[in-house]
């Protein structure tokens, strides 16, 4: 049972936070605890997609704990009312989530025989990786170190150029097939052209096998956003083997996508969009089981999108922009005011652009210690990640052939050498931290 | 203008925080900023009682900033309603105060010409010293180091013995005059004896020149608490020269007090209490201007007592106990449940005993850096302070002849050598931190 509000005393309610424990290989007393700092979704899904922890538990004699983030999965502070309005959503913040993790670990250490002196290592990917880095920064008394995999802790206002994210997406497509990025860049105009007539809209809907056919030009904007998100998701999950993270996909899915986009500059709009449709179906219908494509969803339902929108609309303000030149998307500037207005309309709250930088240190984090920032060279989120060593104990591991937190996944025969080396190095750091902690306890 | 709630987005109101700036000696651009992290009271009072900062401003080319803590002085988030109920008090927490300080400094660096690269050093005493230590721990991106003077960051459940505080008070009296602690220890029973009759109550009230005479035995408990607090306050302000911090007092006021308590064991209850009354008047009427003694107040009105009670009733849970053997007070155990019930009765909130330790690290703070913990050997608050070096950059300075943050006061011809040395060492560390920061900026 955890406080709904760690930072105020008026709301004294508690809620049940879900966490999963695997102690089969735990050496007690004192064996380490690998603690997954859950992100915006169902913790069982993250648990199943973090094979790395399962694979190293035995050699480290470690207990595994996967803690669900409040407001996601089954960890709903107000049950079914948790998302009912901004009053109930008020306790959905990263600070509250970190406090949940801290209190959970303190409770385990107090109550679980053999855990009192167990060093705890935070592990997380993506937003969960940001949380594990911040957890070590804010609660070094609770965790001896953190692996922040694909954690864009610098994707905040004023820290990195807003266009880098989409540049990396574009590079992934550019190097995965002839003319692949060029044809996606051309496709937006082709969609506009074809959509200008009712028959064109119908053709486009048929070609993409849309579950809900496009009815007018207004819906075309949503259709383009959906396509754009599709390409982004592909860049995130461009893994070297068949996998099912956001969707079931073939090995190197962008190469598979680009096979349909290797068209010459002479093709017609219809020919081009036929290729785009085939490409999209690689993502949405690799298994062949989809009878139609649903533009209201781009990834697994295990992610809590509404909660994440709220977080983006409050603390997690991540500027993104495109120029259509260095990237393959339609030009769009970052417009904070418009974003804020949208947030106010949707949730009745306004984002605080500078808060994350103030509270989590922005680029001034050199005084912290024992954090590994791992990033994949293919992953667009590496644009906001830490990709150089800040100090001898704030280290970066770059996996050139890696997409979004590839290192956290189960090992695979098709893993590139870079991710094998990354995982080895990560375990080496874990051992170092565990040793440091043992020395501190015995001192 | 600052957010009333830094940790939630439903309450989007702002308030005016007061802060005082002195930039006469500031070397701009880039000269350091000495930032006083205001505690539970009017900031002008702290400003006037922190002469150390004024005296070193010139040699460091520093700007001075004194920031008032929310809910104290004029920094009231809801104006006159701020204390009206637990709903309005909900934003009175140390975390919110630290966030105010962080946002204030970030704003100054953005808007004040020449301040962008100024290293900021946090300085505070007592609760303000706890805040400056925690400020460096939680926001090392904002402050390069902290001087935490007489900051009892370990006066929390499970960290230090609850009786140490009163033991130190007792030692101060024991060494300041013959039989001084012994007679105070005896006085509690004498008060009980004398108070058992109406004429005795009247005599006691007259002897102590009480503004409101004691009417019954129930009031005697309050009277004894007031006396106990008087002795504690004397221990805090046992300065070597005439001073006016909590009250106007002579040099070494405990010695002056003990002059009235050097009585032999043969004295009667009335003779003993006559001495105690004379002793109390050293504290309450050194200037001779008080016509009567007011048992509802023990110190300056510049402290915000109600706010501090609320903080003690929420986060700042500081166990205290007495045994009457190793200290000179009536035995009283620490009773968390009774304390919690009192808090619930008074404010409608309950304290969270473990939270401060979880959020601020308790005794596991070794991974932080650049904090000086200074403590006076005479100061009872040193019982909960850091009085040994934790690492090469988490250092302790003990001032054996010092009372409560003597080092922060203006220098004085009667200063003991230990406090002179302490101040010198503190400035040396400040210079080191400033140099470190300059290297980081130019790197």
UniProtKB/TrEMBL annotation, chains A, B:
<comment type="subunit">
    <text>Homodimer.</text>
</comment>
<dbReference type="GO" id="GO:0043535">
    <property type="term" value="P:regulation of blood vessel endothelial cell migration"/>
</dbReference>
<dbReference type="GO" id="GO:0006508">
    <property type="term" value="P:proteolysis"/>
</dbReference>
<keyword id="KW-0121">Carboxypeptidase</keyword>
<dbReference type="InterPro" id="IPR008758">
    <property type="entry name" value="Peptidase_S28"/>
</dbReference>
<keyword id="KW-0865">Zymogen</keyword>
<dbReference type="Pfam" id="PF05577">
    <property type="entry name" value="Peptidase_S28"/>
</dbReference>
<keyword id="KW-0645">Protease</keyword>
<keyword id="KW-0325">Glycoprotein</keyword>
<dbReference type="InterPro" id="IPR042269">
    <property type="entry name" value="Ser_carbopepase_S28_SKS"/>
</dbReference>
<dbReference type="GO" id="GO:0004185">
    <property type="term" value="F:serine-type carboxypeptidase activity"/>
</dbReference>
<dbReference type="GO" id="GO:0008239">
    <property type="term" value="F:dipeptidyl-peptidase activity"/>
</dbReference>
<keyword id="KW-1015">Disulfide bond</keyword>
<keyword id="KW-0732">Signal</keyword>
<dbReference type="InterPro" id="IPR029058">
    <property type="entry name" value="AB_hydrolase_fold"/>
</dbReference>
<dbReference type="GO" id="GO:0003085">
    <property type="term" value="P:negative regulation of systemic arterial blood pressure"/>
</dbReference>
<dbReference type="GO" id="GO:0005764">
    <property type="term" value="C:lysosome"/>
</dbReference>
<comment type="function">
    <text>Cleaves C-terminal amino acids linked to proline in peptides such as angiotensin II, III and des-Arg9-bradykinin. This cleavage occurs at acidic pH, but enzymatic activity is retained with some substrates at neutral pH.</text>
</comment>
<dbReference type="GO" id="GO:0060055">
    <property type="term" value="P:angiogenesis involved in wound healing"/>
</dbReference>
<keyword id="KW-0378">Hydrolase</keyword>
<keyword id="KW-0458">Lysosome</keyword>
<comment type="similarity">
    <text>Belongs to the peptidase S28 family.</text>
</comment>
<protein>
    <recommendedName>
        <fullName>Lysosomal Pro-X carboxypeptidase</fullName>
        <ecNumber>3.4.16.2</ecNumber>
    </recommendedName>
</protein>
């Amino acid at each position: 049972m955890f406080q709904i509000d760690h930072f105020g005393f008026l709301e004294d309610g508690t809620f049940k936070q879900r966490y999963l424990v695997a102690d089969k290989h735990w050496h007690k007393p004192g064996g380490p605890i690998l603690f997954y700092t859950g992100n915006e979704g169902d913790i069982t899904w993250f648990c199943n997609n973090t094979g790395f922890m399962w694979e190293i538990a035995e050699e480290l004699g470690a207990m595994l704990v996967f803690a669900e983030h409040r407001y996601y999965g089954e960890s709903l502070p107000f049950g079914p009312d948790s998302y009912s309005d901004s009053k109930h959503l008020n306790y959905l913040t990263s600070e509250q989530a970190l406090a949940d993790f801290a209190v959970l670990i303190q409770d385990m250490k107090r109550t679980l025989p053999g855990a009192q002196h167990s060093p705890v290592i935070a592990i997380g990917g993506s937003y969960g990786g940001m949380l594990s880095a911040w957890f070590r920064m804010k609660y070094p008394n609770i965790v001896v170190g953190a692996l922040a995999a694909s954690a864009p802790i610098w994707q905040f206002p004023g820290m990195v150029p807003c266009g880098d994210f989409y540049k990396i997406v574009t590079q992934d497509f550019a190097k995965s097939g002839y003319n692949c990025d060029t044809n996606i860049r051309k496709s937006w105009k082709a969609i506009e052209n074809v959509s200008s007539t009712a028959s064109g809209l119908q053709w486009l809907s048929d070609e993409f096998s849309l579950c809900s056919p496009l009815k007018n030009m207004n819906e075309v904007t949503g259709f383009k956003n959906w396509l754009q998100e599709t390409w982004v998701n592909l860049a995130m999950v461009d893994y070297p083997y068949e996998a099912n993270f956001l969707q079931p996909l073939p090995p190197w899915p962008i190469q598979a996508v680009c096979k349909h986009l290797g068209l010459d500059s002479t093709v017609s709009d219809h020919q081009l969009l036929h290729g785009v449709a085939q490409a999209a179906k690689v993502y949405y219908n690799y298994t062949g089981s989809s009878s139609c494509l649903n533009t209201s969803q781009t990834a697994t339902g295990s992610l809590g999108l509404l909660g994440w929108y709220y977080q983006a609309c409050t603390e997690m303000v991540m500027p993104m922009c495109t120029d259509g030149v260095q990237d393959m998307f339609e030009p769009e500037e970052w417009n904070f005011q418009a974003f804020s207005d949208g947030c106010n309309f949707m949730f009745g709250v306004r984002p605080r652009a500078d808060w994350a930088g103030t509270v989590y240190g922005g680029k001034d984090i050199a005084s912290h210690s024992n954090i590994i920032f791992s990033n994949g060279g293919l992953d667009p989120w590496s644009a906001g990640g830490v990709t150089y060593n800040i100090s001898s104990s704030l280290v970066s591991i770059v996996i050139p052939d890696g997409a979004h937190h590839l290192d956290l996944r189960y090992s695979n025969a098709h893993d590139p050498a870079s991710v094998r080396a990354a995982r080895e190095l990560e375990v080496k750091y874990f051992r170092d931290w565990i040793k440091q902690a043992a020395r501190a306890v015995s001192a």
